[in-house]
Amino acid sequence: MAQNLDHLMVLNQSYFPIIQQVREGSFKVPFTGKLNVLVNLFGKMLLNAVQPENRKKTKTFPVWEPTVSDIPGDVVERFVQHQTHLKQLIVSSTDLVAKDTVISSPANRWIVYRLATAFNILIAHEQRHLEQSKEVLRLQRSVASKAML
């Protein structure tokens, strides 16, 4: 479960520099970002892939692997702080969302989608992993209660 939280923070934080570059005007949209059909297609595909009800396992890109295998004990506190920062970033980006800003994936520059879709992807992805964590907890409790019988 700690690795799930670490993975979420690593993935979310990979978007922060891109959004900062957009804000500063230094982000260069690749040519694929100028093709609405690709922007819509990539965004829709990724959003569908991370939906919590999508039970199909997918391998993450190496850039989003958990940073370490032995996660420090303060991971929950860091995740809560991270959530506050992410929420502030989303709220402060409403102007960019309103402009239909197109960004590229931190994992692959040629995969492009709208910033609004990126935020929806991040939120759905978090929900998916949090549901997985709840499932692990339920299984652990079930195994523990059966062992006590």
Summed up, what is this model?
This is DinB family protein. The chain has five helices and two strands; from the N terminus they run ααααββα.
User: What is the CA–CA distance across the termini?
Assistant: 26 Å
**Treating each run of at least 4 consecutive H or I residues as one helix, how many helices?**
5
The total number of structural domains is: 1
* Share of residues in strands: under 5%
The counted number of beta strands is 2
The percentage helix is: 55-70%
Structural class: mainly alpha
Shape from CA axes? elongated
**Low-confidence regions:** none
Strand order of the largest sheet: 1-2
Instruction: Determine Rg (CA atoms, Å).
Output: 17 Å
User: What is the residue-averaged pLDDT?
Assistant: 89
Main pleated sheet: 2 strands, antiparallel
Q: Give the topology string: H per helix, E per strand.
A: HHHHEEH
Helix and strand arrangement:
Blueprint: H1 2-24, H2 36-49, H3 75-92, H4 94-98, E1 102-104, E2 112-114, H5 115-148
Helix pairs in contact: 1-3, 1-5, 2-5
Features:
149 residues; single chain; elongated; mainly alpha
Please characterize this protein's 3D structure.
- This protein is mostly helical.
- The chain has one domain.
- It is built from 5 helices and 2 strands, in the order ααααββα.
- A two-stranded antiparallel sheet has the order 1-2.
